[in-house]
Each structure stands twice: as C-alpha cells, then as structure tokens.
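agent: user wants the structure for Triosephosphate isomerase from Candidatus Aramenus sulfurataquae. delegating to structure tool.
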Amino acid sequence: MKKPIVLINFKAYENSFGKKAVEMAKVIEGVSKDYSVDVIISVPATEIYRIAQEVSIPVYAEHVDAVDLGARTGAITVEMIKEAGAKGSLLNHSERRIRFDEIDDAVKKLRREGLESVVCVDRYTMVAPVGMIGPDAVLIEPPELIGTGISVSRAKPEVITKGVEEIRKTPGVELIAGAGISTGEDVYTAIKLGASGIGVASAVMKAKEPRKVVEDFVKSALRAIEEKGR
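agent: tool returned. relaying tokens verbatim.
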C-alpha cells in the first residue's frame, strides 16, 4: 500500500449509494489525481460494480464473508467482490464485528484472490495478534470516538503510539489510525505519531464541501510524510 494511506468509508448514509455515491467517488478521485495519492474508498456491496466502473481509485468492499461459494444465501463472498471490481475489503469494523477465525479466513481468501485487506481493531493490544494474520493494514479505531469529531490523535494519542509499537512486531503490515478524525491537523498529528495513514467516514460523507475536506486531509498527510522523511 502506497503511503500516505487515506481510506474513506462510505458506510450507509443517504449519499452512500446510487448517483450520489458515484458523484462522491468522482470528487474523491479528483483529489487523488491532483495529489497523486491513492485514496481508497470502501463502499456498500451493492455499489462496488457501479463505482468501480466510474473511477480509477481503489474501491473496497465494506465487509466480506469468509465463506466458500455454494448454498450461502445472503453471503458476500470474496469472489463476488472481486468480480464486481473491488481491490480489497475492510474487515471487522466496530459496526460489523466478526470472529477472529473469520478474520483469519477472510484475509487468507482475499490474499489468494489477489485482493487487499484492512482489518479494524478497537484497541492497541489487538494490533499485533491481528497483524500476525497478515492483512495489508490494521486500522485502529476506539469505538467511543467514531463519529464524534473528537479525533483519536487528539484525545487518545497513546492509542496510536502504542499501536505503532505493536505493529512493528509484524513487518510488512501498516497501521492506520481512525475514529473522530475531522481536520487536516488531526491527520497530520496521527501520521507524525507514527501511523501510515488514516481512516475516515462521516467527516467526508456528511461534509457540505467534501472536496475541501478530502483535499485538506491529503495535503496534511503529505506534509506529515514529508517532514518525517527529513
């Protein structure tokens, strides 16, 4: 995954599906192209095909089931999201928890199909255990801060710094910070604390001017990466 990692989760808002979702994806793609940053968007399963046809940025599923093809009514399989155009999947979000063995199976299935995986955890003590499974990234999000506008980088910076210490035990796996991130300064701080990038949802999906928000996030992420490299 190319740094800085910026992942925008569409969730299930009024603008997360249909024409509004495509419009949002195109806005995000515009920022991605302007700054040469691969902004990842995770979208509802029903929208993967539609959006993947319209934009060139990586499209993820918001969730995938760790099951084989067959008599699985209602399942969303790895094969399905790949055929629809997804480049990977978000897993174990606090709003869509799955068992540890299911995380393991899903990551393996995604890897076999050449797709990426980002696994969410709610505490730093889970970073290394999940990292050992071998996802592309672990997204740490204290659930009590999600959607609050109070960022993890401001309210609980130790969650990021301790998560960074834990991710070092699993080389090749990136750490993404999320929960409450709402300003460019939040993004800058998270990356300066050691995260490889950030995950956001409502700050973009509920914004009156989403392009300005995404641009602020991307510019701040690039600034932090540049300063860390000096």
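agent: one observation worth passing along. The chain has a mean pLDDT of 93.
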